[in-house]
Q: What sequence folds into this?
């Protein structure tokens, strides 16, 4: 089979049909307008609709078109930043709540999958972080000790001579396992979330780009007028879940988020024996570099191998180049896959805040959640749910609301990431020296 520039996960699922009738009119008014039909928006829509709110989900493209159908399907504990860094930024008490929330995100996904009977191959297979340098491995010991002491959560450090039981690669200095993490098929999961939101009563509008949001009272009630490519609607509240695709309709948010490209290849189906050799415990695996690789077996036993092969958000050219860069990376890790064919390559856009933290809350009166930094499968689902509860008037525990949300140093960013080539070079340099 020739290499297809196409998202493999989308070949495994049919997305819900919401909008065959392109002219379907928008409702005149809703309680909540949700922008973006990914994990964040659909999880919020499901919670809101189940509690009786009138919800319209407005999606510029199609359900799951953004990162939510394109990712590695790793449902990961923890945050992108290490725990010592988190404690230095937020103190022990808030960091403890953040870490507890990161564990709760996995339970949140599992509960939804079970309640909604979503056939997305959810499995608590655990994750494995592998050390590219000896000093990275030495740091695992320290991290595991802090995490056990401060957060009462157990990670298992695997020395180099025992690593064979976890991974069929000899290039690493050791690893660290978290048994709580899980894997799933993200396209099936986002399709299932959409079905669940629709079943609960939310209306999903695809091909509906939101171009402007303005404050406008209606019948004495404060609210918002949204101008879309399908006409206008009024909403009492607006919730934005646009992640790495955040654009000029929410300029204040756009200036706080750096869109970064990430790319994935998947191989042909491996034999059972080869699959068992490369990943004996079927872990979700990523390495310790800044410019990292992440990889796993798909449920049908393909090697899925991803990384920031180019830093820019995806274009046909960057996707094509990534296929070869990632194949070389995969063979460095697994020389035994030298003759294995790569069948699919695709890319997507990640959302990084300047402090590499998730953020949620209200900005200029508009609710939002984003900044998942490659940890969004579980966190986006959780934030969608928590922010929906907040909009409904509950007081949910959410330690990511209200933390400082920094913009670019000296304000040198208007939403166009001119510095990404420099950032790419900088991270490669850091990987070389640290
Ligand atoms: C290649 C890749 C691999 C990844 N791997 C992992 C992983 O293994 N584990 C993990 O935890 N995370 C991973 N992530 C991150 C994770 O996929 C995201 O954090 C998560 O999907 C974000 O979901 P979301 O709903 O917030 O945004 P998205 O799924 O990106 O959805 C945002 C949507 O908003 C829509 N939109 C934007 N502007 C407008 C507008 N004006 N009007 C209407 N609609 C609009 C877009 O069309 C888009 O569909 C990965 C991401 C990528 C790109």
A:
């Amino acid at each position: 089979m020739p290499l297809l520039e196409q998202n493999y996960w989308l070949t495994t699922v049919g997305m819900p049909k919401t909008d065959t009738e392109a002219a379907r009119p928008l409702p005149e008014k809703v309680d909540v307008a949700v922008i973006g039909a990914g994990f964040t928006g659909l999880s919020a829509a499901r919670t809101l609709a189940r509690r009786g709110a009138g919800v319209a989900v407005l999606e510029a493209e199609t359900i799951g078109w953004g990162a939510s159908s394109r990712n590695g399907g790793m449902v990961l504990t923890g945050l992108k930043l290490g725990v010592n860094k988190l404690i230095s930024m937020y103190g022990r008490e808030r960091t403890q709540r953040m870490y507890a929330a990161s564990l709760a995100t996995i339970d949140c996904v599992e509960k939804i999958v079970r309640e909604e009977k979503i056939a997305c191959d959810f499995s608590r297979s655990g994750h494995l972080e592998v050390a590219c340098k000896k000093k990275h491995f030495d740091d695992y010991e320290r991290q595991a000790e802090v995490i056990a002491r401060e957060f009462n959560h157990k990670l298992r450090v695997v020395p180099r001579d025992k690593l064979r039981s976890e991974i069929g690669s000899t290039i690493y200095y050791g690893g660290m396992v978290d048994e709580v993490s899980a894997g799933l098929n993200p396209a099936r999961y986002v399709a299932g979330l959409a079905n669940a939101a629709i079943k609960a009563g939310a209306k999903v509008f695809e091909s509906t780009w939101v171009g402007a949001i303005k404050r406008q009272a209606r019948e004495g009630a404060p609210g918002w007028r949204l101008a879309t490519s399908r006409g206008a609607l009024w909403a009492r509240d607006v919730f934005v879940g646009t992640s790495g695709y955040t654009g000029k309709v929410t300029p204040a948010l756009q200036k706080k988020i750096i869109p970064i490209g990430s790319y994935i290849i998947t191989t042909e189906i491996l034999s059972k024996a080869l699959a068992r050799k490369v990943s004996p415990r079927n872990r979700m695996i990523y390495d310790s570099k800044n410019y990292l690789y992440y990889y796993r077996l798909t449920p049908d036993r393909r090697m899925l191998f991803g990384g920031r092969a180019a830093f820019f958000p995806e274009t046909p050219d960057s996707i094509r180049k990534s296929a070869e860069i990632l194949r070389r990376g995969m063979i460095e890790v697994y020389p035994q896959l030298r003759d294995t064919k790569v069948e699919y390559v695709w890319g997507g856009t990640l959302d990084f805040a300047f402090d590499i933290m998730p953020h949620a809350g209200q900005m200029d009166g508009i609710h939002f959640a984003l900044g998942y930094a490659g940890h969004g499968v579980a966190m986006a689902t959780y934030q969608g749910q928590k922010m929906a509860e907040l909009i409904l008037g509950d007081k949910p525990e959410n330690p990511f609301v209200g933390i400082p949300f920094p913009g670019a140093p000296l304000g040198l960013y208007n939403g166009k990431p001119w510095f990404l080539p420099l950032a790419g070079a900088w991270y490669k340099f850091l990987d070389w020296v640290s």
Notes: The mean pLDDT is 93. DSSP finds ten helices and 19 strands in the chain. Residues 78 and 99 are 6 Å apart (CA to CA). The first strand starts at residue 4 and ends at 5.
